[in-house]
Amino acid sequence: MKSTGGTSLGASGPLAKNGARTRGYTDTASDSGAPIRFTGGTMEDKRRKYDEAMVRQAVTLNDFHDYLDWGNIDRSNLTAEQSDILELVEQELTKKSVLGTLTEQERNTVFKNTLNYLYSHTKSANGDPYPIFIDIAKTGVVAPYAAIIDLPEKNDYVKGPFPEQIAMNTDVLSNKDLRMIFEYGRQKPANEAEVEKYKQQFTYKNNVYLEEMENYFDALKNGKATPKDRQKYLDQAVLRIYETCTKPIPVKDKRGKDAGTVPIGELIPPYDDSFGAQVAREALRLVGLKYLHKAKEIIPGENGDYNIDCSRLVSWTLSEINPEWKYDTISTSARYQINGFKKVWSNSGSSEPPYEGMLPGDTLFWKGNETGEIVHTAIYIGMVDEVPMMIEADNTVQIVEVREKTTNNNGEDSTLVQVNRMTPEELDKHHDQNTAKSIN
Predict the structure, then answer these.
(1) Staple 73 to which of 68, 190, 249, 254, CB 3.0 to 4.6 Å?
(2) Which of 212, 130, 120, 138 is nearest to 174 (CA)?
(3) Would strands 258-263 and 397-401 be described as parallel, antiparallel, or unpaired?
């Protein structure tokens, strides 16, 4: 039998929790954990024990198969990996049922863990990762074992393998979007770096669920919510994860041609709380806005009157992060924005930016080949599939591959000449200095 990839369902897992007991035998099945003794006694006793053992085995396996059927596992159309897993589980269930050492609690745990393992570590035979789970979550059907769906205490909410099971009983997103949320953080890693990456994704997602559940229980305690409001908080959790992790964002290549979509969490990881990531994440909110249109067409608020061009995209973003930076902090012209901040790179020393040393939120500047003036700026996002990406206001606010040569709206060719890095400390310093000048 093939390896099941380290599953805990085998000899060291919950199925074998009591398998090493050797403290004695009993003549009847019980929850004590002591195995049935088949030797000794009359032939009638031996036959009775044997018949009872076969009944226990049959009942246990029938219950197990019913549970898998309830979970929409098609046992007639399993992958080789799924068949190996179920064979291993059934062997252990058979052994413990025959010996009479399988307690009800242990049996229920094994059933649940097996189903959850199949959901999270395998694909169905048709190649679809999680249609099973989404179907169950959308029906709202209560499972045979209430712990899977109905978790009454907020601290229990993220202990189960699938906190989404309650949250996904919602109509705020499509099934396709819900599947993307479910898969987020559960991808199979190809290397050690991806192991850590997916672990961070999964942790972030669970923390969102826990935060919303804490908000719900606090509101419930303070009389600001009723039990009927729980789904509203779960919907908020799902939408938060969608907006920060899985929302598809259109991207373009160097030529400005459509290059498909990328999940927003792949552009800026939601668990990256650095200042630069915050800058890039804010700018992403305006993707799709037409050149020189007002920001409020997409994002209403105090900064909605900004007519967004390349440099005002930067100043709008900073104003959204800190309202004090709206005035006396940074110019709305690229030719002035290039000054006063840490220089990460300039083309005087090398012909290509050191992308490995650049961070999300760094600002890029292009100089006109004819005028010699700074004519364009953009915000660096990071590497996506080993391609450096940025967000800029061109014909629209768009995510595009970093290009070292470009043509401005006035038709002038320009060249990437400098990359800067802003910090909150420097922005505060600029604000204080410029405010003092305006007072004097």
Answers:
(1) 68
(2) 138
(3) unpaired
Contact present, 163 and 186 (Cβ < 8 Å): no
Q: Over 70: is that where the pLDDT of 157 sits? A: no
Strands 397-401 and 248-252, by their bridges, are: parallel
CATH number for region 276-440: 3.90.1720.10
pLDDT tens for each residue of 63-85? 999 888 877 788 998 989 889 98
| N-term to C-term CA, the chain | 82
- How many residues can be counted in the chain? 440
C-alpha 153/C-alpha 205 separation (Å) is 18
Domain locations along the chain: 14-126, 155-246, 276-440
Answer whether 226's CB lies under 8 Å from 232's CB: no
Q: Report the C-alpha dihedral over residues 364, 337, 424, 295, rounded to 10 degrees.
A: -80
Joined tokens for residue 184? 């987020």
Output the pTM of the full model. Answer: 0.67
Q: Is 59 left (phi over 0), alpha (psi -120 to 50) or beta?
A: alpha
Output the six-digit token pair for 92: 């252990």
